[in-house]
């Protein structure tokens, strides 16, 4: 059984992944609204499909990254040092993106989506940062060391 | 520890204390000349020159009667049924001294007394309204006819009760409407009776619709300004106790009247107060009749001030009327109560800006006359469009609408249950503008939640027109022709009046529209204009004939009305049409002909000379007439719509516009002329005109013989092309300052640009205004699908923790 800090870190990363998925689902469901907002701005002109594909891509990437993070978080909890290292590689840019979403996220004409983006950014920043702190605790490091040794 | 007093601190502390005490004191009640003692008028004070301009508009909604609300089955409009209905005023204006009724009422009183219910005996009018009518033979005959009719038409199950049938004799009810229509039909046809049933229905409905608007505005005003909660407001929508108007109704009863509110004076107030009659107007109109016939007497009898608040600022003339009314009322009160017992003013007024939206009334269905709306589009609220739609065709139409309103108001005045004051304000025709100059000069392809269109009609101001007539007709022509130009191919937009070509007058579909009619009539008119100009009785005509050459003095007068480049500003999504001039071209020039063939037997040089004479002497005057004369106003109007439609057609070729489906559809069904006109009518009139001599010129030669020359002017109108000259944004701003700002918000009344020109605009959209402007909210599915991952995470966390605990305890 993994020590508490490692379990908690993995769980927090799972939480961040669920928030990214929530954001992605919200984005996909809001696509028709974004199209209308785009058309409002362009007086009905321009390629709506570009908006649709851009938001769809970002949403799918968010879900994909979420799944990957969950996978490696589980492997980390199971004692994989490699997974732990990959979690670090994933989490540092995730922190930056979360911070960016918190500060500049959102889309004024769709206030609910702006709130969702900022809330997701803020919450995932806390969760990911918390996970990284937990993973740096001596108990976590000892677990991998021992696990790797055994 | 010893505290040393510090003088500076002590001084500051004392100062702060003093200020706080002053602040806690009640504000001194300065006498305010422009507000009634003890109350500050809500909104922007009209008389106070220092009043702050508060144009923040409140919004409210209200229910209106839709056209279908007064729909009646056809059999009810038949003579036999209408004749079975009783007098129009049977319900509210019944003669209570009628012998039969008096007898019935006395019997009722006796019955009540015998039953020991003497205290509950109703007064005569109330008895008539609630019970007495059942014994009236006229009413019973009508109800029987109604039941029989319902049965005969297979709708017996929908028969309403006797009581409901009776109630519909009240103002606005179906029976009230039908008896009014019957009485209207009894008037002699012609000047006093011109309306068809549908027109009459609208005219009957319009004043009734002023009521809910007024009531909703009053509700908003009272809520916003604490009228409902202030115990000093003791009268609401009713008579002032103890105050009757002078005179009686024709049945000898006291006249009914209502005031909106009465605020009782406070005798203990520091400043002397008077009772205050509060009148609320959901229009900007000053109702002189109400002021003189009702409010004057109520305020005089009660020695009350009058506070009147309008939804929008009245005209300067209206404000003057209020000032004069103030002086009159003040003088009358001073005379009656003494100067010491009356304040400085008697009338106070303010603007309480608000916008009302009709909930039930569907503007898209009603298709306000002149609105550019078709298909699934709906008109958004626009006071300007309503003003156009309300514009009467002529004085007679206005008088008739006024007379219907007056009848309704009179009926309502006789009813104890209806407030007639708002009704009296319809019709409210606009004045000060010349609707004959109305042209579609601004068009914008919009997207607000869905595709739409914003447009504005340009209208010249004319301060001399007290009532501006013809707006609805002119705007309808502009709007219908816009859609006609969109629906039909450009090749169809030409007409040709040539006696030798009766089969080539006009495209078959185009010839069924008003745009086609206008072009043909203009073509005919042009021929008459030429005939007038070349007539030898005029100096110019004589000079013209004298300068012609050749034995026959032959000249080809085949000429066409064609467009010259319209000056436009096209910024991609908006089109401003600054001018759209027309030209008249000789056919030789127009079709690049030599002209020699038109006068066989005459020397080519003479023919060309004659044409040159015509071009220099006559043609400029024809061009001037086509561009300025009132008889060509419709032609100019439809041509401005043609320019706008061409821009819209080209825009629709590259993007999804609101009316893309109409472009090139060939379907002109909604815009077929309703005038009953046919192209052959104009052609026949043309042929008759020249046969009867309108185009026959009598000339006297030097030797004294008389020569009759038949002069035929052939040709037509060709709007297949719409050349334009485009302006830059700077040019637009320089040549027409303020025009962009004037059309930016078209929801209000007509907007004025800096040149003083008027713009009557509106916007249409697939969505209602509210839906189009509603901020996006999370889709419902989001709360389920979106929050599912978080729920799963929390659930997984719970399960994992439980599992860990179990593992740990083993």
TrEMBL record, chain A:
The chain crosses the membrane at residues 54-78, 85-107, 119-137. Keywords: Membrane, Transmembrane, Transmembrane helix. This is Uncharacterized protein. It comes from Actinoplanes cyaneus. The lineage of its organism: Bacteria, Bacillati, Actinomycetota, Actinomycetes, Micromonosporales.
């Amino acid at each position: 059984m993994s020590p508490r800090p490692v379990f908690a870190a993995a769980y927090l990363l799972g939480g961040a992944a669920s928030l990214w998925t929530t954001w992605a689902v919200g984005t996909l469901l809001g696509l028709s609204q974004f199209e209308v907002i785009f058309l409002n701005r362009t007086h009905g002109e321009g390629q709506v499909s570009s908006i649709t594909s851009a938001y769809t891509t970002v949403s799918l990437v968010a879900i994909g990254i979420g799944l990957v993070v969950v996978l490696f978080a589980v492997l980390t909890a199971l004692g994989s040092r490699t997974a732990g290292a990959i979690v670090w590689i994933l989490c540092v840019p995730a922190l930056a993106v979360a911070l960016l979403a918190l500060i500049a996220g959102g889309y004024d004409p769709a206030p609910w989506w702006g709130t969702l983006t900022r809330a997701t950014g803020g919450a995932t920043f806390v969760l990911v940062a918390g996970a990284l702190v937990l993973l740096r605790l001596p108990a976590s490091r000892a677990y991998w060391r021992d696990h790797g040794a055994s | 520890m010893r505290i040393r007093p510090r003088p500076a601190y002590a001084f500051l502390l004392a100062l702060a204390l003093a200020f706080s005490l002053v602040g806690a004191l009640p504000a001194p009640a300065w006498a305010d000349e422009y507000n009634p003692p003890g109350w500050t008028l809500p909104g922007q004070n009209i008389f106070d020159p220092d009043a702050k301009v508060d144009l923040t508009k409140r919004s409210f909604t209200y229910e209106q009667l839709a056209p279908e609300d007064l729909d009646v089955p056809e059999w009810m409009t038949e003579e036999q049924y209408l004749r079975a209905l009783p007098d129009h005023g049977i319900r509210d204006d019944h003669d209570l001294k009628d012998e039969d009724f008096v007898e019935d009422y006395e019997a009722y009183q006796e019955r009540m007394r015998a039953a020991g219910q003497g205290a509950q005996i109703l007064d005569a009018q109330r008895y008539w309204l609630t019970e007495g009518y059942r014994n009236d033979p006229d009413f019973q005959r009508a109800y029987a006819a109604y039941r029989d009719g319902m049965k005969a038409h297979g709708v017996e199950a929908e028969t309403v009760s006797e009581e409901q049938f009776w109630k519909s004799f009240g103002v606005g009810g179906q029976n009230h409407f039908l008896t009014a229509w019957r009485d209207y039909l009894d008037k002699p046809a012609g000047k006093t009776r011109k309306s068809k049933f549908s027109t009459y229905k609208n005219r009957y409905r319009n004043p009734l619709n002023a009521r809910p608007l007024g009531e909703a505005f009053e509700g908003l005003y009272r809520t916003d300004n604490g009228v409902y909660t202030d115990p000093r407001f003791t009268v609401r929508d009713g008579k002032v106790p103890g105050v009757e108007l002078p005179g009686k109704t024709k049945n000898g009863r006291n006249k009914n009247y209502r005031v909106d509110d009465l605020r009782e004076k406070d005798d203990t107030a520091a400043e002397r107060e008077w009772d205050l009659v509060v009148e609320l107007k959901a229009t900007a109109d000053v109702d002189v009749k109400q002021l003189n016939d009702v409010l004057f007497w109520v305020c005089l009898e009660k020695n009350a001030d009058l506070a009147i608040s309008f939804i929008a600022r009245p005209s300067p003339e209206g404000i003057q009327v209020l000032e004069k009314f103030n002086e009159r009322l003040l003088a009358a009160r001073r005379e009656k109560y003494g100067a010491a017992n009356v304040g400085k003013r008697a009338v106070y007024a303010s603007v309480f800006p608000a916008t009302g939206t009709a909930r039930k009334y569907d503007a898209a269905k009603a298709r306000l006359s002149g609105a550019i709306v078709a298909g699934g589009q709906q008109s958004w609220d626009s006071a300007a469009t309503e003003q156009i739609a309300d514009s009467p065709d002529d004085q007679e139409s206005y008088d008739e609408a006024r007379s219907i309103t007056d009848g309704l108001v009179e009926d309502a005045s006789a009813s104890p249950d209806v407030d007639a004051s708002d009704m009296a304000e319809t019709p409210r025709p606009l004045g000060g503008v010349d609707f004959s100059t109305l042209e579609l000069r601004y068009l914008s392809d919009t997207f607000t939640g869905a595709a739409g269109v914003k447009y504005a009609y340009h209208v010249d101001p004319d301060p001399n027109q007290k009532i501006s007539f013809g707006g609805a007709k002119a705007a309808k022509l502009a709007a219908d022709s816009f859609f006609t130009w969109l629906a039909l191919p450009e090749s169809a937009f030409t007409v040709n009046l040539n006696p030798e070509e009766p089969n080539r007058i006009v495209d078959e579909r185009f010839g069924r529209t008003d745009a086609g009619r206008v072009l043909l009539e203009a073509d005919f008119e042009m021929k008459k204009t030429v005939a007038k100009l070349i007539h030898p009785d005029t100096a110019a005509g004589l000079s013209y004939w004298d300068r012609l050459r050749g034995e026959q003095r032959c000249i080809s007068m085949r000429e066409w009305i064609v467009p010259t480049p319209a000056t436009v500003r096209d910024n991609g999504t908006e089109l401003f049409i600054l001018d759209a001039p027309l030209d008249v071209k000789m056919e030789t020039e127009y079709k690049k002909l030599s002209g020699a063939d038109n006068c066989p037997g005459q020397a080519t040089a003479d023919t060309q000379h004659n044409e040159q004479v015509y071009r220099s002497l006559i043609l400029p005057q024809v061009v001037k007439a086509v561009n300025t004369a009132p008889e060509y106003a419709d032609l100019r109007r439809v041509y401005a719509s043609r320019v706008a439609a061409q821009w819209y057609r080209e825009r629709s070729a590259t993007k999804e516009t609101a009316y893309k489906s109409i472009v090139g559809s060939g379907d002109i069904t909604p815009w077929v002329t309703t005038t009953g006109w046919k192209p052959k009518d104009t052609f026949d009139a043309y042929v008759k005109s020249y046969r009867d001599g309108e185009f026959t010129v009598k000339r006297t030669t030097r030797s004294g013989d008389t020569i009759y020359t038949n002069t035929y002017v052939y040709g037509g109108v060709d709007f297949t092309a719409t050349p334009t000259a485009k302006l830059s944004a700077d040019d637009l701003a320089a040549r027409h300052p303020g025009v962009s700002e004037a059309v930016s918000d078209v929801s209000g009344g007509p907007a004025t640009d800096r040149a003083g020109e008027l713009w009557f605009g509106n916007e249409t959209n697939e969505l209602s205004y509210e839906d189009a402007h509603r901020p996006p909210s999370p889709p419902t599915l989001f709360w389920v699908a979106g929050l599912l991952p978080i729920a799963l995470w929390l659930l997984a966390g719970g399960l994992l923790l439980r599992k860990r605990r179990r593992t740990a305890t083993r």
